[in-house]
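User: Some background: our group keeps a shared notebook of sequences we're curious about, and every so often someone picks one and asks for a predicted structure to add to the entry. Today it's my turn. The entry only has the sequence so far, pasted here. Could you supply the structure so I can complete it?
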Amino acid sequence: MDFTTLTIDFLKQLSNIFGSYGLGIIALTVIIRLAMWPLNVSQQRSMKTMQMLQPKMKAIQDRYKNNPQVMQQKMMEFYKEHKFNPMAGCLPLLIQMPIFILLYSSLMSPQFISMAGQSKFLFINRLDATLKGNAGISNDGKFSVDTRDTFSLNKNIKVYIGDKELEGAKLSNPRSALKVQGDITPGEPVDLKISLDDFDLKFSQLDKITKVEATVTDNSTREIEKVTFNRQGDILAASVPTVAAKTSFNYDVLLLVVIFGATMFLTQKIMMSTNKMTQVDPAQEAMQKSLGTMMPIMLTATFLFIPIPAGVLLYLISSNVIQVGQTIIINKQLDNEQDKKNLAKGTTDDLAVNTKKIEAKEIKNVEKDK
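Assistant: Of course. Here's the predicted structure to add to the notebook entry:
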């Protein structure tokens, strides 16, 4: 099953509903966050439970600090007694990683680039653009290249027998079917070839193929061009003009990186303020504060060097904003649940005290009558 194609098709449906691929990505973020709501509730509940258990946990750690093996055993018994899993809060993060990787591969794929890579949204010029991109223009009949560039084919190709298109023709592996013949020299045509063995067709059909029309993507610059491959013996070959690639700096993507860092910093601050531990060791509290500050800075700095598409950054920013709202709402719900439990417990205690008082009064009155 091709999950990349499924993701792109789903994004296309969302874009048709909401009017743009940018809004489609935001809608996808909302859908994912709503689907993960129960897990986020579980995560917040786990943090709340840790707040209440923190003093006892610290007492165990202090008591057995000189015997790590016994301390670990006592901690496991403590977790089991209170039905608490310290790793429960990590599950939402683990689930989000495959989603991030899938969205990244989808927005960097030739299918998305050829279909919607040049889509604009708000101040974003291209959803597939990274911080440093190629200044070349797609579909202008030439590639802007460097000597180390590689190329790939879009999944959808047109195969011709004479002047008639062969229906149902497809490549067995589009990602590896396209090869570069010889070296790449910017300014000189690049020679590309497709072997007939890469087609999932009968031998009788392979012998009749005359040409192929395909969308070719430069994997380094994300530039796309429509190329016609003509039959030459046992291969299909094409020569495409090239120019030397010129790197451009996309300030709209830089702004997205900055916004991502700000929203992540805000998310960390709200998470720490709403889930503040009681009786935490000062050194541990300082470490938590430092981690909450350094993590957004480190991730933001990483995105300055790793080529993250603008669409993926839009997803991450939307996810951070939604997470802030979810954290506030869920914590209010959990606080209300705890208040109701405390109220019910307090009412039960009051009833028990009043009952004891009444019984004592009745006994006293009986003794007076005697």
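Suggested note for the entry: The first strand starts at residue 132 and ends at 134. Residues 3-118+250-345 form one domain.
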